[in-house]
Amino acid sequence: MIWLGLVPLLFSSLVRADVTTYPAPAGEAITGDYAVTVNGKPVDVYAAQSEFFGGDYSFATFDFSGKVVIRVTSSQSLAQAQVQPSRFELRLERNSDREITLTAEAPFRISVERDGRKKPLLLFGNAAETDAPRPGDPNVVYFAPGVHRPGKITLTDGQTLYLAGGAVVKGCVRQGQEHHDPRPRRAWRRGVASFPGAGTISAGLSGLPGSYGPQLLLPHPG
Description:
6% of the residues lie in helices and 43% in strands. The chain is mainly β.
């Protein structure tokens, strides 16, 4: 009986959750409106503006595997907070008027809406990265952590655009006019893309064939 009683404990010790966070680059706007931790690890929360969500919103991103508990605190009441879309089936618990926890076991993209679509918190829980492109590869346009202002980024045949976690890229992306290589140009990212007229989080990269990584624009997550 003693050995049988130890089985659940031994099994649970093997089911380990890994969490990777990406510190925001110096100078990027961090919100005081929300605070987020994942399994106790702080996650930087960006302040952003867009034509969506009434102008202002916040967002945070991290990678994980296994089961995680996300703690969200807010400068305003979360008593009526809703999580959208519901299809990700995160378990919501209300700890206090200004604090909730969410439990997740699979990647998700959600909006925590405390007052409808006014100043929501967008959360991107991404699958752990295992095969990221490497800097120095001639077929990869690679942006390391930090703030980058490259202006116009042009991808040629077979190239991959990669934003590492902690990278903030402010510019625009276009595909070269000549396209003879059957391999698609693609975007693959853990960082943040900012394009004129699209707010801090932009879908500009996901317009390329074969885009990978978190979907960084949620006009409405439903």
